[in-house]
Amino acid sequence: MKNKFLILGLMVAFFAACTDLTDLNVDKKNPTSVSGESLFVSAEKNMTDQIVNTNVNFNIFRFFVQYWTETTYTDECNYDLTTRNIPLQHWDELYRRSLANFKESAKLINNEVTFTPEEAAAKINKLQIIEILSVYSYSVLVETFGNIPYSQALDVTELNPVYDDALTIYRDLLSRLNTAIGKIDASAGSFTGGEDNINNGDMARWLKFANSLRLRMGLILSDLPGEDGIARPAIVNSAAGAILDNADNATMEYLGAIPNTNPLYADQVASNRQDYIGANTFIDVLNALEDPRREYYFAPNITDSTGQVIYVGGEYGHTETYGSFSHVNDNMRLPTAIGTIMSAAETEFLLAEAVEKGYAVGGTAESHYNAGITLSILEWGGEQADADTYLARPDVAYGSAAGTWQQKVGTQAWIALYNRGFEAWTSWRKLDFPVLVAPASAFSDIPVRYNYPVNEQTLNPANYDAAAAAIGGDDVATKLFFDVH
Q1: Assign residue 357 a region: left if phi > 0, alpha if psi is -120 to 50, beta otherwise?
Q2: Terminal Cα-to-Cα distance of the chain (whole angstroms)
Q3: What totals of helices (H) and strands (E) does the chain contain, helices first?
Q4: pLDDT tens profile 169-225
Q5: Which neighbouring-strand residues pair with 252?
Q6: What DSSP string describes 83-119?
Q7: For a Cys-Cys bond, which of 96, 219, 233, 386 suits 382, CB 3.0-4.6 Å?
């Protein structure tokens, strides 16, 4: 009897395990369908990686603003964008690997069935996060190239998308951002667990990010005649709800193993690249101001005759000896080092700019300037006393530092935005400070835009030609719509 029960039990277990033999044909390592949440994780990381990247094939904005220089292969420091087809990589990472995945993620999540009010609210919030990061990604593309495919972009049936007017796109992006902000329920849930590696699904923090982004974009439009009707509400309505504390900075949390490490680690440590050093353009300014962030920005690998650590920048755009100049700080090269796409310090400098331009955002230009410097020093590991001493210097204090407000804000924003090459480049183009000079051997003057990817000339020639003509020529010297000074 016992044997019969044993045999019967085995037969039941066998047939229960084999009720659907089609499972045997499923390759679980290469799924044919994924969830919207999974696609979001991928898109969010791809987007942040591209902004944080230091690989010369993908992102050379730190060279444009002369934070770093190369010691051996100096083509990128001399603004050679074509040998490695850098514009194509930037274009591809944001369109194909980021925006396309955001779009598909939103489609899948929108089709998910919800059973409770809480699930429905979380679904709406997820869609707003995707929308906010889509707006951010498009804004980066517009600020890089000018006119770009937008209305027909990401349409798989449209192989030759038209290029839309950059200013028209920007207005629409601000409208989309306003709508997303209005739909956020900060008290409800959204992505959970490891689905959101920037704000961990915290909608209050996403709302602050969206407000900081809206402030940034409003100020992009603020110098344009006729745009005040869009710029002013974007700036004023964002001021109080933006990122104003380092605890709310929008940062990617990287992991300890490739391929999920910070891109700086992958490009400089894992690849054993000994080529990037601090540029004299940047380090000379830090030294003149005795800036307390030097020890956090650069490694203590150079000492003087007394053994005192000093910071020495290599001549920008020239070949140098790697060991003779200050290296990138090792803490920035850790696999788990964070990648930042928005910070409280940046917000405060934007608010200082807004005050100087006459927008009612509260506070004074000086108070926001001081807050931006202080937040930056604290963000990098300094103390409040370091910030107080620094702000007391006559060449730093807002009332006595040299130059116009654009020079004061532009220079200190440049220092604070270290390691955030793209946004530093945008700030420089808006405010025209600090004063940067291209090396004598450069392929061009300092680029104020990327030229379009070469393959657009061959694969989408009619629309490429129209776009190039509309912006005044596909050249790195062609100023974009917001670069009016």
Answers
A1: alpha
A2: 94
A3: 19, 6
A4: 999 999 999 999 999 999 999 999 899 999 999 999 999 999 999 999 999 999 999
A5: 339
A6: TTTHHHHHHHHHIIIIIHHHHHHHHHHHT----SHHH
A7: 386
Q: Coil, strand, or helix at residue 186? A: coil
Beta bridge partners of 276: 70
Instruction: Give the domain ranges of the chain.
Output: 37-261+337-471
Q: What does the alpha-carbon distance between residue 20 and residue 135 come to, in Å, rounded to a whole number?
A: 44
State CA 455 to chain mean position distance: 25
**Which residue reads 């037969």 in tokens?**
11
Phi, psi angles (nearest 5°) of residue 53:
-50, 150
C-alpha span between 104 and 106 (Å, rounded): 5
Quote the radius of gyration of the chain (alpha carbons, Å): 25
Amino acid at 193: G
User: Which tokens belong to 96?
Assistant: 């194909």
For the chain, list residues with pLDDT below 50: 1-30
Residues 374 and 443: their CA atoms lie apart, in Å, by 38
Burial of 462 (0-12, 13-18, 19+ CB in 10 A): exposed
DSSP state, 165? P
CA 67/CA 381 separation, integer angstroms: 19
Write down the pTM of the prediction. 0.93
In this structure, is the dihedral angle defined by the CA atoms of residues 177, 183, 188 and 189, taken in order, positive or negative?
Answer: negative
276-278 and 339-342 as β-strands: parallel, antiparallel, unpaired?
A: unpaired
Cβ proximity of 387 and 310 under 8 Å? no
Tokens 């509309």 label which residue?
470
Q: Give the helix/strand (H/E) hosting 287.
A: helix 280-288
For residue 356, what are the CA distances in angstroms to 222, 359, 361, 444?
11, 8, 10, 33
What's the pLDDT tens digit per position in 378-418? 999 999 999 999 999 999 999 999 999 999 999 999 999 99
Q: How many CB atoms lie within 10 A of CB 299?
A: 18
Residue identified by tokens 């045999």 is 7
* Per-residue pLDDT tens over the stretch 288-313: 999 999 999 999 999 999 999 999 99
For the domain 37-261+337-471, what is the CATH code? 1.25.40.390
